[in-house]
Structure to design on (217 residues):
């Protein structure tokens, strides 16, 4: 792949990971900025070495502090299909994890369960390749559970706590309520709701989308 087409792809993917500035989110009171997560891979050090023969290449910071998009890409090979050009996010993790939409999982022929990030025990595996590098993951393929990142101050303001599941009203072209949205509280988190493209398309969300936590009663 030449450099210009690689840069085009990186720009496209970065555009999909919609950025919302703190000023924008602060101006919307109780609204939570929604960011769409495309399919991506988190990799452990050993798998990074096996696939790329060296460390990941930082391209761009993502909205949650410390997380970044890498130049490297992987191919996913499942029992019934292949998906190329899958984004790799850094930094390295203790275990490799592939996050897909349910549509992606169907294409690949993998029965990926809905799980919180990091909870990969007992999930299906998949084959990853990059150039001549190849890794057979025993497990690690998930559909990420929809969630909201927020700081402890945000949690107080919204009246919610870490790991609480809340319903969220999605104000899209086809308005919907997502139930069981997991609240994740950490001092390093910046307010953002993360859903995948299946979920975004289901309610016709535009690029600048917002969700509102509803009363659980
Ligand atoms: Zn997230």
């Amino acid at each position: 792949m030449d450099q210009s087409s690689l840069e085009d792809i990186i720009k496209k993917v970065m555009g999909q990971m919609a950025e919302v500035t703190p000023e924008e989110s602060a101006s919307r009171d109780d609204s939570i900025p929604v960011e769409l997560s495309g399919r991506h891979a988190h990799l452990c050090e050993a798998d990074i070495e096996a696939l790329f023969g060296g460390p990941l290449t930082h391209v761009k910071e993502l909205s949650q502090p410390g997380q970044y998009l890498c130049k490297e890409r992987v191919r996913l090979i499942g029992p019934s299909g292949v998906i190329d050009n899958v984004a790799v996010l850094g930094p390295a993790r203790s275990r490799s994890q592939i996050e897909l939409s349910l549509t992606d999982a169907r294409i690949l022929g993998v029965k990926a369960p809905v799980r919180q990030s990091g909870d990969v025990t007992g999930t299906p595996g998949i084959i990853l390749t990059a150039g001549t590098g190849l890794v057979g993951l025993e497990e690690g393929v998930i559909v990420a559970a929809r969630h909201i990142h927020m700081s402890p101050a945000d949690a107080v303001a919204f009246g919610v706590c870490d790991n609480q599941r809340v319903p969220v009203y999605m104000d899209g072209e086809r308005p919907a309520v997502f139930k069981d949205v997991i609240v994740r509280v950490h001092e390093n988190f910046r307010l953002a709701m993360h859903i995948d493209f299946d979920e975004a398309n289901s309610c016709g969300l535009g690029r600048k989308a917002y969700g509102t936590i509803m009363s659980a009663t």
